[in-house]
Amino acid sequence: MPRHLPALLDQIHTEAQALFGQGRVADYIPALGEVPPRQFGMAVALCNGETHAVGDAHTPFSLQSITKLFTFVLALKLVGDELWQRVGREPSGAAFNSIVQLETENGIPRNPFINAGALVITDILTTRYAHLDYALLGALRRLADDPELHWNARIAKSERDTAHRNMAMAYFMKSHGNFHNPPELVLDNYCRQCATEMSCSQLAQATMFLANKGRDQSLRGEPDEQFLSADDTRRVNALLLTCGAYDAAGDFAYRIGLPVKTGVGGGIVAIVPGVGTVAVWAPELDAKGNSVLGAFALERLVQLTGWGHNTL
Amino acid sequence: MPRHLPALLDQIHTEAQALFGQGRVADYIPALGEVPPRQFGMAVALCNGETHAVGDAHTPFSLQSITKLFTFVLALKLVGDELWQRVGREPSGAAFNSIVQLETENGIPRNPFINAGALVITDILTTRYAHLDYALLGALRRLADDPELHWNARIAKSERDTAHRNMAMAYFMKSHGNFHNPPELVLDNYCRQCATEMSCSQLAQATMFLANKGRDQSLRGEPDEQFLSADDTRRVNALLLTCGAYDAAGDFAYRIGLPVKTGVGGGIVAIVPGVGTVAVWAPELDAKGNSVLGAFALERLVQLTGWGHNTL
Amino acid sequence: MPRHLPALLDQIHTEAQALFGQGRVADYIPALGEVPPRQFGMAVALCNGETHAVGDAHTPFSLQSITKLFTFVLALKLVGDELWQRVGREPSGAAFNSIVQLETENGIPRNPFINAGALVITDILTTRYAHLDYALLGALRRLADDPELHWNARIAKSERDTAHRNMAMAYFMKSHGNFHNPPELVLDNYCRQCATEMSCSQLAQATMFLANKGRDQSLRGEPDEQFLSADDTRRVNALLLTCGAYDAAGDFAYRIGLPVKTGVGGGIVAIVPGVGTVAVWAPELDAKGNSVLGAFALERLVQLTGWGHNTL
Amino acid sequence: MPRHLPALLDQIHTEAQALFGQGRVADYIPALGEVPPRQFGMAVALCNGETHAVGDAHTPFSLQSITKLFTFVLALKLVGDELWQRVGREPSGAAFNSIVQLETENGIPRNPFINAGALVITDILTTRYAHLDYALLGALRRLADDPELHWNARIAKSERDTAHRNMAMAYFMKSHGNFHNPPELVLDNYCRQCATEMSCSQLAQATMFLANKGRDQSLRGEPDEQFLSADDTRRVNALLLTCGAYDAAGDFAYRIGLPVKTGVGGGIVAIVPGVGTVAVWAPELDAKGNSVLGAFALERLVQLTGWGHNTL
């Protein structure tokens, strides 16, 4: 454990602010575009129970694609390896919303973290749960230890109103037999899911089981403390490392070397197996849809702590 | 360190042999197709100096794409981050010899481990070395600690005679200004390089610097013991994890979770940072060009040692 | 005019029957798959008023993609060259239902005769007509001179129930701003349109304006006898020649050399400018979705009459 | 036959000059880029023996891709329909130098008029002729009735020096077994062929057999007056109509409606079957590589003569 983590976070906070203005807030969903750009928060949760935070680490933000991590884990717990009959686990080498590979690969998305793959995951969950939105919220509330956790209904609606490309993917997969529920219903669930809001400190908490061989420490002593098996936890982290940052996964691995999941809300969560988790949030995005300050902050943290060196 | 590594290797050796016949020896290069299929070797080199081996671990085999790891490291040492202006570091999401992305991405290969990317690396090295083949051989001899290390001239020739697709890629990149030497010359170097032969025990030795924060222990005490910087070592490993197994990188990460490099000669080398390296060889390949028994052996080793759990 | 057209048609009829069994009835729409395969009809309508028919030339069949010809002409009459802002006029070089080019060309379909292009045309007409299905039926009834002309409701429903891929295309174009009405509504219209039924003799009659510099002879003496301008007629024929036979347009041009439109119902209509029209129907299709006997019959007719030689 | 063809050509000449400056002279081959842009020539050769010309109709220019028409006809005469085993006859729906379809369609080019297809044709001819360059020159001299016809050695060399992309295609096809001679040798032939020079009046003359059911009138009374069979002539014209203008074939068919072949030297030749041929030249090109003034002149000629209306 680095001695002076709070001081390091302060240093990174200061350095990161110099990058304000280098990216652009996502505006493809109108309601998302209204978020004030110059915000930055960062939270670290350690396996030993310590937590540290700087900046806007307690401001809730829209998780967006970060929720794909949670829905994937839920689906993996529910259906196990059968899931791989409907979605691959290879990097896509293409934009997160590309439909081209669906045509050349018969409606099977490359991995669960591109849009098409996440839609299949939501389709699987929609089949299992009468009210997926509340089931998912329940799981997230438990993981984040916050009974008030909710989704932003206005952003969910804004997202649903402009979800044409995701609808296209859902129908395309349906034409290949790889979509079981009505696309309209799954998109309703998907857009609510994406609009879930957490703060950095909550997000770091909610993903701790991935740093901890699958154990959910918020449940210490309870019978289902093992939220995910150790083997599956390792596999989820592998998938986050190869596919967690859209079409910049290779660059993230190269610069940061940790399993991550990013979202167009400007959040990134990174897993340091055996050490802890890091959540960072800053709404300005680069051309590939990842947070500019967020990626910078993680890269600096890895340099300053050597955490990347332990894993790779 | 697992207590009984020799026993584990014996167990894996026995289990792996049950898979003989499930793959096919590469035959796109005629001379490669003559290798007897039912062979299996495995060697482990640990940071503490221990080495263990089973089966045909001392039989030399054709490294093929595994040499892309060594040429990439040499180029990174020589030209540093400038290298990234000529090659990307993202998984390709396509076959190792696909030319499609070169057209849509203006002659810049996705990463140094697909064929197009390795050709650019060899082009870079060809510019630097009057006799690249001997320069490379020198580096490999030093790393493998074997002054007799050589390439198989017959396989090199067989490879050169059928290198039409690689020639196509070289000329295509040249049309985009991303190839500086005559393609014919670079292909000569490339085919000799691919025909280099090592045994598993030599390969495990030669890659130890990647498990060891860049230090080459065969040089213990000599002034240039630091073969590669610790930062660059971490980055190379990250790239091996995301791009080291052709279009099965995601699947390898999921099942094995270690940086690897595979070759159509049937070899695979895996890095366990801080612990050691594992080289395995069995000529029968699966549909994506990776060794069937090799992948199985690494997956079992990770399960039995927990090495995968330490890194991810 | 060939002297013995009736005898030629009899000869072709006899020769064509030898090909029964070489193709397969379309079955992607369940209701279409029930059509008995061994049927063949052919009708010729000449500019001089003569008509000739053999075989099942008076049996109604499902027009399917042949209706794209009529909807395109209607849209061209309504909106003129503005239409080309929403659809191209180049051959696609890809399957009729491919979605790949929509992604690389920003949601603008290559031409009005591939599915995506025909959907845009139906979207344009949906905006103009409160009840497009009846407006289209009215136009077709007038051209075919049959007040009883109708669509097959069962086939329309079967088509609508399995229209997932067309829905995907509609939503994809909507995401690019190239679709103005709700996809569900346009697809309702599109599927009814495709299910329109005509016999060969009706189809030959209904397309006579294309052989006749745009004049609709069924309206001889009426004020709007000029159904389409002579210039636009020539242009429509050019488009039929380059894009009328899915991804076999080049092969059709090479073998037959006439503007054609084919449909998966097994119908083909060919235009001989200045001479007349030929409609042929036989439900068995080749791998590209065109009628085996229909293409053969047209090729023979061109060889025996020299009609192809007059135009090219 | 239009009464006042000379007057029409004068009118078109005048109108066309207003478009000077709207296009750009091809500069991808350095030597081609030196051609003065503001030139325009047009020649019409009629089946009745009349010829008419305006502007720079007697200035030789670089035929470039127009030679693909001649080599294709030579190959068709030599090997007949076997040729279609090595090249398709469908529009490509992609840029003339795209390599993507070669990968997805196993090294078989879409048609003989895109670069890859023309390279296969030149490969076929290279196999047949010890000195293809002189064999081709002989044929062109005979057709153009000019024993002095030659290629521009400087342009040929400039072209060969920058032929990397064509080399890539040749090697790619060789890797699929669809290239029999050394790419270097075929490219030598190909670049000399492209550098052949003719004037508009020669080009109109040299293609007259295509307007004349295959008969070469310059050979009137000689035994081999039938240069190409009538059937094959019709087929070549069909192919020119669907594939003769790169990826603007559909637009050319729509606007002009005649079989054409264009070249990046700024030339276009159009066939009016049964009537005659039109050659036009103006070096400024549009974005798709076709002559701006040339396309305009042909479109106007068709409007003013109605020639397009006779054929479609």
TrEMBL record, chains A, B, C, D:
Biological processes annotated in GO: glutamate biosynthetic process; L-glutamine catabolic process
Keyword Acetylation: yes
Catalytic activity, reaction form: L-glutamine + H2O = L-glutamate + NH4(+)
GO molecular function, one term: glutaminase activity
EC number: 3.5.1.2
Superkingdom of the source species: Bacteria
Keywords: Acetylation, Hydrolase
Ligand binding (substrate): S65, N115, E159, N166, Y190, Y246, V264
Entry-linked Gene3D superfamilies: DD-peptidase/beta-lactamase superfamily
Cross-referenced HAMAP family: Glutaminase (MF_00313)
PANTHER family with a match to the protein in the record: GLUTAMINASE (PTHR12544:SF29)
Protein family per UniProt: Belongs to the glutaminase family.
Assembly and binders: Homotetramer.
Protein name: Glutaminase
Source organism (scientific name): Hydrogenophaga taeniospiralis CCUG 15921
